[in-house]
Each structure stands twice: as structure tokens, then as C-alpha cells.
């Protein structure tokens, strides 16, 4: 018979204190009395402890030792001879979360895991089968069921840590599915237990957790680095960086923080000294003026290397500011042309209906008091007082002789900084927009600016023309057009660097829970050792009840 | 541990209570005069006792001339002699009395002091005999309340004797001194060396023609035993040990034995007309003395 955890037999040493305790307990307690007269009068059989009572005490001791033996046997996880001879199927899961790259003594956690796995693979018998899974999103089967040790060892080598945070849950679920198809397959996971989730043990398969210890050194790393062009001013690039630190309590005030550097196209642009970075969590935002494409790098420079190097630097690329083509269709309006021509990154082209491109591009089409051709659906379009019916709805024949803006969506991106208060239009038309259209500005129920600017095909319509605008309107209109153009500039999409993540950088270990514990949300301080079988709980419960009952009946058994 | 501080043992409150007990005792004995007790001695009182033949040397003034005229023989008249009562207070000083809180020995000395006070107040002679403590002198019967404070100091200085002795033997050692006949009050727990030891001691007193009263003083913890399991019982007096397995059956048997022993003592005392009172050493000494007075037989 072999045991999966033979070290449990050391717990058998607990028999020594149990025996000592019983010996001490069986020593008679001294009790002074004023006279022994009446005790001497008692029959001898009542005074002394007969043999059968002594045997009962011995029986009590044997019960305790038997309980201890069974408990140790349970923990040692014996394998019966027929179980030893049977072929075993094991699924090994290698956790590839970024913190597995953390080094301790020059060896990373992943290398340690591989070393353990190599030992396990070499110890396989000819009939045993192994399947290797690397965790990830999605998890990868890096070697199918095989007994070939060489294949397994070769498949092990290319495993690398993931660049971003990954969960082991999909790998566990996959392993559980595969194990259920293999009969009595076991699952073993090699992990440092760093993760941002509570693990759930597969219910139908036995799980062995091979724990890789975390390095004791403090890790200081980047957990966020991103760059984005300002939506207001695309030439301005906003760079955000955030750092974090593992076990800050361990180092106290002696911790020497690294300095933080920012490089633009490999040119050192800014340095944050270590005194400012020396915090459990540090945040910084840079604002740079960049029109062309650029490579932005940040790195933490420390005097002593920390365990995890993958979070010490990050890199993002920022796209150049895009040129937006604007087609003006319809009667020429010099004011509109002048407003658009004054904008940077905008190319204005005046055209006629007949010359419109057959396939609308990403350009902005502005139709001034003219309806577009049927089936012409550009990605973005602005209709200035369009006639007849169309995507904007229907124009009524009656005019709004005098209309003043009563309400407008001043918080909408299109109307940001556009003050339409008391703006007066003297030649607005009345429209009945389609129900899907949003009203951005209105005059007592009549739409002035309306459209759909959230969907794929963005369009806006104005019920007024630009022929007789008043002075205030002339002031705010360029801002409105500017917002319109900037909202179409896709170079404002943020670019974020791939980093291990906050949990990995903090090397924060999470306890591994049974499925039932994970469901209930309990978080015990330690969940080890994992019990392999559900009947363990019942036996343990039975043993505890047995012990309590034994203690309770001890006196009664030896005295009655 | 019994105290030897006279102020602690006999505090002012206790002495005040003694005075009220004295008044109670006066009521109970209902105005008897001093020395109003008949003695078996023939003496010179006015109470005629018997005749005897006149011998040479007898006082001729006590010749009954009327009888001579009738019988023509000289007969001599004997009279009952009246004398004061001797109260012998026997205090058990064996080590078993050093038990409980308050100690049985302390309580016994307080009760003894109360009885002595009542005796002295009745113009009797009160003496104290420390049974089992040969190093402590006997307080010979003496009369007068003026000696009470000296008696208290004498009692306070009395200690339990660490040597183990049979109750009958130490009583015998006193009766061998041929004490004057009187009232003998034995204050003891009556835990003898065997179950008949106390009876033998009382027999000794009876045979020495003493009037006897017995006050058994016990502690509640002696009537039962707590705990369960194996115990090694150590005798306070003999230092002997007994291993015992204490269980409910043993406890019940023990309590039955203690009760039987008490019944045996009561039965013996009733059979021989000996006043017997069992007191709890946890009770107030003044209350115990009051019970003694109400019981009768302890005070004449």
C-alpha cells in the first residue's frame, strides 16, 4: 500500500500526548478528608477500582488511539494495491498568469512549475496517461492524452507566461470536462495561486493543487499605461500611468522606490524621481502635443531588480491625427466654406450631386438645402434645411417665421461649448422627424437640430439655413462644426499597453476554495489541505462527534 | 487553621451575645439559689438522709434521742450535703477537629467558652479539659465570673494535637485522674479510630459516674463527598491514604455510613439518658448556644 501524502504519518506522533494525557488523568487526585473512618467501613469492592473498570479505561484509550489512526490514515490518502496497479490518468494544468514570471533566486515560478512537472512526468508508469493544459483565455491543450514522456517533456518547454491577466477557471472547466470523459482521471494544477477570482474545484474530479511559493521580495510594477488623443484637441495626447506595489507592509519605510521614465519615440521626455513614486499606488497623467504617429514608452528603473520584470515597462503606439474629407454639396455658402477651411486636419471639397462618389467613404457630406440621391447613405452626413422627405423625416410647407432656441442638449459632445441661449433664427422650416431621431435643439417643440449621431450611419439635420444667421449664431456655429468634425476623428481611440495587471503585480495570492465555499462566498484563512473525496467530510464529522461523545462518556465509563 | 488570637476567636459581639444568653439561662433554670444541688455526700445540711449506728468519735449532737427512747440504741442522723456543681468541659483536641471553614476547633472553643460563661454565671465551677493535648494544661474547675477572661485566654492558647490518639484512650486518661463528680460536656466530632471508639469513650465517662452531655460538631463537607473518578483520600489526623474510585454508588454508600454512625450515637445517648446535640460548625455560635439551652441537659 502506498500513500499520496505519507508525511501525514508524522501526525501519528500525536498519540504520545494522548497517552501522556491519559496517564496523567488516571493518576488519582489527592483529597484530604477529616477522617477515613467511614471509607474504611465501606466494602472493599466499592472502594477500589476493579480490573474490569481498569480495562474500560484502557478501552477508552484504545478508542482515542484508533480514532487518531483512522484520521491519519485518511489524511495520508492510501492507495490500495488494486488502485496502484490500475493505470492513472492525470491532467496537469500549468497556470500561466503573468505573476508566474516572478523570479526568486534567479528562477521564475513557471520554471519551478516546469521542474516539478518534469519530475512527475519522469515518474510516470508505462500505463499512465497525461494531458497538459496551459491556462489562458481560452486555455490551450498543449499535449493530448499520451504516455510518451518525451512528447510530454517537449510540449512542456514552449509554455510561457501570458502578457495579461488570465483566469484558471476556463482551464479547470476544460480539465473537468476532459476528466469526466476519461473515467477516473485526476487533475493537478501547478500555480502560485495569484488571481483575481475564487477558484471553484470541479465537482466530479479530484483536484491536486501543487503550490509554487511566491517570492518574498517586494514587487513594484506598472498596472496601467494608456495614451489617447484629446477629443477636444486631437493634437494633444493624454498619457496615463498607474503603478502598484506588492506587500507594502513587509518593507516599511526602508523601501527604495524606482524612478519612472517616459520616452516618446525613444527620446527621454520626463522622469519622475523615486521620492514621488514611493507610494503604494502612484498615478500620473502627461499631456503632450503630438500630431504624428508616436511610440510612447514608460519604464520603472530601480537599483535592485524586483521579482516581476514584465510589469517594469510598457509601450503603446499612438496613431497620427487623421485628415477628414468634407464634401460640400449644394448652393455654395461662403461662411460654411470659410469655417471648414479654417480647421486643421480637414480637407474641404465642393461638389455637385452628379459628381458624388458611388460608394460613400468615411468622409463627411454636407448637403446645403439639397436632398441627397436615393440610396446614397454616407457614414456621416449633415443636412442643412433639407427639402422634401428623407432620412431626416418630412419638411412641412409652412415656415417658422421667428424661432428662438428654447431647449438644447448642452451636455452632448456635439453641443459642448455651444451656447444657443437666445439664439434667434428667422427662416427655419418645420420638420416632422422620424421617431428614431434625437432632438438636440428645439424651439418650443419644433426641432431645430436633430438626427442620429450614435449609430453606424451618423446624420444630422438643421431646420435653418445659413443664409440669414444672426451674429450670435455665427459665433457658435464654428464651434458646433468643430465638435462635429472631432467626433468623426477616430484617432481619439485610447491605446492601452498590455500589462500583467494589478493582481499579478501585487503578487496577491487568493485561497483556493471548494466549490461549495466559493458559492457561499466564505473566505477562510486557509483552505488546505484539499480533501480529495466528499466522503472525507462525513468521516471527519463522524470522527469529531465520536471524540466528543467519548470525552463526554469517559467519566461514566470508568466509574459505573 | 485554628486561630490563637483571643480577640479574633471571642470578639466583642460574641461576648455581648453571651450576656443575653445568660439572662435566658436564668429564666430557664427558674430562680434556683446558689449551690442548690444535692450531693451524694453526707454532710451538714437540714435535709435528713438516713440513720446509721453511732460510732465512737461521732458528734453526739447528731444522736437521735427519740430513736434511742424507742429502740434503746444510739443512732446517728445523716443529712444530705449541698454543694456547688462541677462542670467539666471536655474539648476534643485531635487533629480531625482542624477541619472546615470556620474550623470545627474554633467553633468548639467558642461554644465551650459560652458554656463556661453560663456555668460561671450560675455560680458553678467550670473546668476545661483539652482531650488529646497533654501539653496544654487542664483548667481546673473554679468559680467566679472574674475568671472568665483568663479562661478565654487559656482557650485561645489551646491547639490541636498533631499526634493521633484514640478517643476512648484520651477520655480514659482524664477519668483516671478521678475527677470530681459533676456535669461533663464532651465537645467533639466523635470521629474515633474505629466505629466503636466514640461509644467506648462515652462508656468511660458513664462509668466514672459523671453526668454526661455530648455535643457533636461537624462540618457539612464531612457528610458527603464531591467529585468523580479516582481519588487518594488523605486522613487529616493519621495521614493515612486510601485509594478510592468515587462514583455515585460509592458516594451513596458513604453517606449511608455517615448517617448510620450518627443514628448509632443518638441511639446510645437516648438509651443512657445522655443529652446529645449535633451542630453544624458553619452556624452562628450564639445560635448554637441558644439551641443548647433549649435542648436541656447541658445547663443545670
Summary tags:
heterodimer; A: 560 residues; alpha/beta; Rossmann fold; B: alpha/beta; six-stranded mixed sheet; two-stranded antiparallel sheet; 9 helices; 37% helix
What's the gist of this structure?
The complex is a heterodimer of chains A (about 550) and B (about 300). Chain A is of the alpha/beta class and about 550 residues long. Chain A is built from 15 helices and 33 strands.
Topology of this structure?
The complex is a heterodimer of chains A (560) and B (300).
Chain A: E1 2-3, H1 15-26, E2 29-33, H2 37-41, H3 44-47, H4 51-76, E3 78-79, H5 81-85, E4 89-94, E5 103-104, E6 107-108, H6 109-122, E7 129-134, E8 140-146, H7 149-156, H8 169-181, E9 186-191, E10 199-200, E11 206-211, E12 220-229, E13 236-245, H9 248-251, E14 259-264, E15 267-272, H10 274-277, E16 281-289, E17 294-301, E18 313-318, E19 324-329, H11 334-341, E20 346-351, E21 364-368, E22 380-384, E23 389-390, E24 393-400, E25 403-404, E26 407-408, E27 424-425, E28 428-432, E29 438-443, E30 446-452, E31 458-462, H12 471-487, E32 495-496, H13 502-505, E33 512-513, H14 515-520, H15 535-559
Parallel strand pairs in A: 4-7, 4-9, 9-11, 10-33, 19-20, 19-21, 21-22, 22-31
Antiparallel strand pairs in A: 1-3, 5-6, 7-8, 12-13, 12-32, 13-16, 14-15, 14-17, 17-18, 23-24, 24-28, 25-27, 26-29, 29-30, 30-31
Helix pairs in contact in A: 1-4, 4-15, 6-7
Chain B: H1 6-9, H2 12-29, E1 38-53, H3 65-71, E2 75-82, E3 86-92, H4 104-121, E4 125-131, E5 139-142, H5 148-156, H6 167-175, E6 183-188, H7 197-207, E7 211-218, E8 229-235, E9 241-246, H8 248-271, E10 276-280, H9 285-295
Parallel strand pairs in B: 3-4, 3-6, 6-7, 7-10
Antiparallel strand pairs in B: 1-2, 4-5, 8-9
Amino acid at each position: 500500500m502506498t500513500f499520496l501524502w505519507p508525511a501525514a504519518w508524522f501526525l501519528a506522533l500525536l498519540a504520545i500526548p494522548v497517552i501522556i494525557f491519559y496517564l496523567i488523568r488516571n493518576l488519582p487526585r489527592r483529597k484530604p478528608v477529616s477522617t477515613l473512618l467511614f471509607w474504611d467501613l465501606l466494602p472493599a469492592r466499592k472502594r477500589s477500582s476493579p480490573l474490569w473498570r481498569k480495562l474500560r479505561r484502557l478501552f477508552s484509550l484504545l478508542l482515542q488511539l484508533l480514532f487518531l489512526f483512522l484520521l491519519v490514515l485518511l489524511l495520508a490518502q492510501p492507495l490500495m494495491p488494486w488502485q496502484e496497479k490500475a493505470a492513472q490518468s492525470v491532467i496537469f494544468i500549468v497556470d500561466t498568469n503573468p505573476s508566474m514570471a516572478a523570479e526568486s533566486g534567479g528562477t521564475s515560478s513557471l520554471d519551478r512549475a516546469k521542474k516539478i512537472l518534469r519530475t512527475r512526468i519522469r515518474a510516470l508508469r508505462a500505463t499512465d496517461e497525461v494531458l497538459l493544459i496551459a491556462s489562458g483565455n481560452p486555455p490551450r491543450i498543449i499535449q493530448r492524452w499520451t504516455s510518451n514522456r518525451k512528447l510530454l517533456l517537449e510540449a512542456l518547454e514552449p509554455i510561457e507566461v501570458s502578457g495579461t491577466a488570465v483566469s484558471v477557471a476556463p482551464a479547470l472547466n476544460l480539465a473537468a470536462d476532459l476528466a469526466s470523459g476519461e473515467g477516473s482521471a485526476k487533475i493537478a494544477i501547478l500555480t502560485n495561486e495569484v488571481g483575481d477570482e475564487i477558484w471553484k474545484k470541479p465537482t466530479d474530479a479530484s483536484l491536486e493543487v501543487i503550490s509554487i511559493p511566491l517570492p518574498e521580495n517586494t514587487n513594484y510594477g506598472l498596472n496601467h499605461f494608456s495614451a489617447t488623443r484629446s477629443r477636444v484637441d486631437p493634437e494633444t495626447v493624454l498619457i496615463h500611468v498607474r503603478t502598484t506595489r506588492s506587500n507594502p507592509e513587509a518593507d516599511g519605510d526602508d523601501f527604495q522606490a524606482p524612478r519612472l521614465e517616459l520616452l516618446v519615440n525613444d527620446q527621454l521626455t520626463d522622469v519622475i524621481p523615486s521620492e514621488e513614486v514611493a507610494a503604494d499606488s502612484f498615478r500620473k497623467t502627461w499631456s503632450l502635443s503630438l500630431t504624428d504617429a508616436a511610440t510612447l514608452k514608460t519604464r520603472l528603473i530601480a537599483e535592485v531588480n524586483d521579482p516581476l520584470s514584465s510589469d517594469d515597462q510598457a509601450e503603446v503606439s499612438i496613431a497620427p491625427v487623421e485628415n477628414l474629407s468634407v464634401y460640400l454639396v449644394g448652393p455654395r455658402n461662403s461662411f460654411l466654406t470659410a469655417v471648414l477651411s479654417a480647421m486643421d486636419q480637414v480637407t474641404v471639397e465642393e461638389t455637385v450631386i452628379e459628381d458624388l462618389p458611388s460608394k460613400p467613404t468615411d468622409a463627411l457630406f454636407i448637403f446645403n438645402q439639397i436632398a441627397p440621391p436615393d440610396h446614397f447613405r454616407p457614414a456621416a452626413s449633415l443636412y442643412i434645411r433639407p427639402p422634401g422627405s428623407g432620412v431626416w423625416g418630412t419638411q412641412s410647407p409652412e415656415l417658422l417665421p421667428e424661432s428662438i432656441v428654447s431647449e438644447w442638449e448642452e451636455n452632448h459632445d456635439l453641443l459642448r461649448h455651444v451656447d444657443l441661449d437666445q439664439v434667434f433664427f428667422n427662416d427655419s422650416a418645420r420638420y416632422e422627424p422620424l421617431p428614431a431621431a434625437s432632438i438636440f435643439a428645439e424651439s418650443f417643440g419644433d426641432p431645430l437640430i436633430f438626427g442620429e449621431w450614435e449609430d453606424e450611419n451618423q446624420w444630422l439635420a438643421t431646420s435653418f439655413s445659413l443664409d440669414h444667421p444672426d451674429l450670435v449664431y455665427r459665433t457658435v456655429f464654428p464651434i458646433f462644426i468643430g465638435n462635429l468634425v472631432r467626433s468623426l476623428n477616430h484617432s481619439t481611440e485610447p491605446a492601452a499597453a498590455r500589462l500583467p495587471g494589478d493582481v499579478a503585480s501585487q503578487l496577491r495570492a487568493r485561497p483556493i476554495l471548494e466549490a461549495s465555499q466559493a458559492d457561499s462566498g466564505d473566505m477562510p484563512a486557509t483552505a488546505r489541505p484539499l480533501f480529495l473525496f466528499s466522503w472525507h467530510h462525513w468521516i471527519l464529522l463522524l470522527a469529531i462527534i465520536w471524540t466528543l461523545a467519548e470525552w463526554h462518556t469517559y467519566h461514566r465509563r470508568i466509574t459505573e | 487553621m485554628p486561630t490563637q488570637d483571643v480577640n479574633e476567636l471571642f470578639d466583642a459581639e460574641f461576648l455581648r451575645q453571651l450576656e443575653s444568653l445568660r439572662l435566658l439561662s436564668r429564666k430557664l433554670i427558674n430562680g434556683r439559689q446558689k449551690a442548690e444541688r444535692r450531693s451524694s455526700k453526707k454532710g451538714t445540711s437540714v435535709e435528713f438522709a438516713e440513720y446509721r449506728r453511732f460510732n465512737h468519735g461521732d458528734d453526739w449532737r447528731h444522736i437521735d434521742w427519740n430513736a434511742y427512747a424507742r429502740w434503746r440504741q444510739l443512732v446517728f442522723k445523716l443529712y444530705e450535703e449541698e454543694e456547688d456543681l462541677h462542670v467539666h468541659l471536655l474539648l476534643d483536641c485531635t487533629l480531625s477537629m482542624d477541619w472546615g471553614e470556620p474550623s470545627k476547633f474554633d467553633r468548639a472553643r467558642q461554644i465551650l467558652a459560652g458554656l463556661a460563661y453560663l456555668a460561671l454565671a450560675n455560680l458553678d465551677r467550670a473546668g476545661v479539659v483539652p482531650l488529646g493535648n497533654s501539653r496544654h494544661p487542664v483548667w481546673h474547675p473554679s468559680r467566679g465570673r472574674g475568671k472568665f477572661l483568663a479562661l478565654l485566654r487559656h482557650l485561645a492558647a489551646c491547639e490541636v494535637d498533631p499526634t493521633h490518639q484514640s478517643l476512648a484512650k484520651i477520655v480514659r486518661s482524664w477519668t483516671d485522674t478521678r475527677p470530681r463528680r459533676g456535669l461533663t460536656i464532651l465537645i467533639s466530632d466523635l470521629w474515633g479510630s474505629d466505629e466503636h471508639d466514640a461509644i467506648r469513650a462515652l462508656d468511660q465517662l458513664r462509668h466514672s459516674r459523671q453526668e454526661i452531655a455530648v455535643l457533636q460538631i461537624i462540618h457539612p463537607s464531612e457528610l458527603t463527598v464531591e467529585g468523580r473518578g479516582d481519588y487518594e483520600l488523605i486522613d487529616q489526623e493519621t495521614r493515612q491514604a486510601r485509594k478510592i474510585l468515587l462514583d455515585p454508588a460509592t458516594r451513596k454508600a458513604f453517606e449511608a455510613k455517615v448517617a448510620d454512625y450518627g443514628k448509632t450515637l443518638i441511639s446510645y445517648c437516648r438509651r443512657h439518658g445522655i443529652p446529645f446535640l449535633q451542630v453544624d460548625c458553619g452556624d452562628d455560635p450564639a445560635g448554637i448556644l441558644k439551641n443548647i439551652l433549649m435542648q436541656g441537659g447541658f445547663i443545670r
